[in-house]
Amino acid sequence: MTDEVHIHTHGRVGHISLNRPKALHALTQPMCEAMSEALLGWREDDAIDAVILDHAEGRGFCAGGDVAMVRKSALEDDGKSGRAFFHAEYRLNHLMFTYPKPIVAFMDGITMGGGVGVSQPCKYRVATENTMFAMPEGNIGLFPDVGAGWYLPRLRGATGNFLALTAARMSGEECLWAGLSTHYMASESVAAAKAKIIAGEDIEAVLKNASATPPEARIAGNAAKIDAIFGKATLEEIIAALQADGSDWAQKELKAVQAKCPTTGKVALRQFAEGTKCETFADNMVMEYRIASRMMLRHDFAEGVRAVLIDKDNNPAWDPASPEDVHEALIEGIFAENPDGGEWTPFPG
Ligand code: QUE
Fold first, then answer.
1. Which of 134, 213, 226, 281 sits in a 20 to 30 Å window from 155, CA-based?
2. Catalytic: 4?
3. Atom of ligand 1 nearest to the CA of 135
4. Could you tell me the residue range of the domain that residue 191 belongs to?
5. How far is Cα 276 from Cα 149, in angstroms, rounded to an integer?
6. Number of domains in the chain
7. What is the CATH number for 195?
8. pLDDT tens digit string along 104-154?
9. pLDDT (tens digit, 9 = 90+) per residue, 35-66?
10. What are the tens digits of pLDDT across the range 22-40?
11. Mutate to test the pocket of ligand 1, among 112, 169, 264 (most ligand atoms within 8 A of CB)
12. 29-43 helix and 80-97 helix, angle to the nearest 10 degrees
């Protein structure tokens, strides 16, 4: 058992607290497996009605996944342990998406990558003034995974493309605006809300009563531009549209898009087009596991993790370096079926 996640029950409520403070609670494979084991048990347990997901003491909520381990795996064991991590993480994401009892996620802090994967499937998603939501995989040459292929293209307008291509940081009120959270409350109200849920009070009423009026979401003022520009079909067209728009906003977003891994951008646009067509979340996870199996082995991922998390020079050398050089055959290979026995499968039952 791992102490990287705390698992308790209080009366009729299960409680999962992420507890890896040195890595801002970024998910490891043992954490994913411990969470899944608890959730599978509670799913069949008539004594449990609901689940709370939060982080233990200190800053939260969840900065992503254990990408340093995945990088090491790509360099040292051909990606075997990296794939095992993604397989376990995506099983957890899918278990939560299909969970028959309400889960309440408190996104009270940084919520990136893996943290998005364990909060978005929850019926109740609580943002606060501490929430900082992002899908920043373009910074490390990965791709927006953990179910982003399902969630992001289903957000209003072109919000999903915008989030994936710019790695924009969304505040709590912006999460509420986008539907990434269902409630917004002051962080000082969170402890009392959890206590009332644990005491058996009606979850919806508790969250409603604890909610506060958020500040105005800044993104709302840019939504029309985001939809017009980021709604275009290709990365090249989106970049051209940003270049053609003289506003300070467009120039800032242009810089953001151009700093990201161009293969990530093209993969995300194709992934979202396919994800829209997926009939089930499981179909989307099969696709994402194929993509992950390829992307984790590419130069860009090792280079991106080096630049952002190891050397912290934030100056990755992408290869291919520009969208024009990311050819269709490269993308096709990334989306191709995995060999026999190598596809993602959900938990049985
Ligand atoms: C993009 C990412 C990640 C990131 C930063 C990015 C990511 C991730 C982490 C992260 C942060 C702190 C940790 C850790 C991981 O940062 O996926 O282990 O201690 O997990 O710009 O995709």
1. 213
2. no
3. 22
4. 5-335
5. 8
6. 1
7. 3.90.226.10
8. 999 999 999 999 999 999 999 999 999 999 999 999 999 999 999 999 999
9. 999 999 999 999 999 999 999 989 999 999 99
10. 999 999 999 999 999 999 9
11. 112
12. 30
